[in-house]
Amino acid sequence: MRVLVVEDFEVMARSIANGLRREGMAVDVVLDGNDALEHLVATRYDVVVLDRDLPGLHGDDVCRRIATDGRESRVLMLTAADTVKDRVDGLGLGADDYLSKPFDFSELVARIRALGRRSNRPLQPILECGDVSVDSNRRIAFRSGCRLELSAKEFAVLECLLSSKERVVLSDELLERGWDEFVDPYTTTVKTTIRRLRIKLGDPPIIHTVREGGYRIGEL
To answer: Which among 198, 186, 188, 187 is positioned nearest to 161, based on CA atoms?
Structure first.
């Protein structure tokens, strides 16, 4: 899942981002509304965690733009205000969910995952191909009934390949879905992650390299 965190209090923004990365999400951080809109033009995000009370371009205006531009991103609005009117107003702007500060981090994660399942590219809770399966909610993977010990990036790549339903997934797409904006686009990190994932999956091979510069999961 690719997430954009828009929060002007940098300490909180970085804390949220680091926590979400530990949950296996690819997270970018911006501190103002104008930068958020620029990121949304350049990158496809599953969920935008949006502070409502941004300086400069207000969070309300960012939310309106996301809604009127017809973007796929789901919006989780954060605010210190907690009246019914505030929640109604926020949802009326086009937000998909609303969470008041302070909040419990586990609730934030649960709400982000729920919004990800409601996106235009919904991720099924259980993904399978042959004897390989992934439980997206519990963040665990199996082959032939044996649990696989995967890193966050290995899990993200396997999840992306399984959700593709055997179509070819280009390296650029895997990089976009599994890593944040600071990764070098010319890096070999995808190739390295695929190699480690293949070792952990074992035989017979289930991830295949294709000539177009991508990968496909399934039988030959």
So the answer is: 198
